[in-house]
Amino acid sequence: MGKVVMYASVSVDGFIADENDHPGPLFDWLLSGDVPLDDSGVLMVSQTSYDYVRPYWDQIGATIVGRHVFDMTDGWDGIPPSGIDQVVVVTHRGRPEDWHPEAPFHFVDGVEAAVAKAQELVGDRVVEVAAGDVGGQVLAAGLVDEVRMDVAPVVFGTGKRYFGSVDMQYLLEDPEVVIQGSRVLHLRYRVRR
Description:
With about 190 residues, the protein is an alpha/beta fold. It is built from four helices and twelve strands. This is Dihydrofolate reductase family protein.
């Protein structure tokens, strides 16, 4: 099975959005360069960020998100973000009725079922877990192999925490990657087992 990676852009003080779910300047680094990150023509990053992020994005086979993120984005209109093949949504409510029946979205109850479904779908490719409440639950279940953070130079003070409502200590290994991009610091840690 492929590794499970928890990932998001994050403020210096550990938030992935403000209290109103707005990311504010967390994604400025995705617009601050001159190298296209994808085919949209919108995401433009520094060469350093491209060299780090693009190979990682190419390894992702599925992303796991919570129902809150799915609802906020309207499920990206049935098209998985960033060229990802599959999206697994953790929810108690199931697929919305008449919502893009052909879309490669899978609705499961619980984080363990979400990771199992994603790994079944992608085999040896990376399973990405969106940071926040669902990511924190996957970490607490002992299913996260690696933590990736794109740290933006902003302090929110309050908001939605990167690790959600995790209420105990988890040790990470020393950072394997520390890369300075434009308006971002890319970090990668393995979860200590």
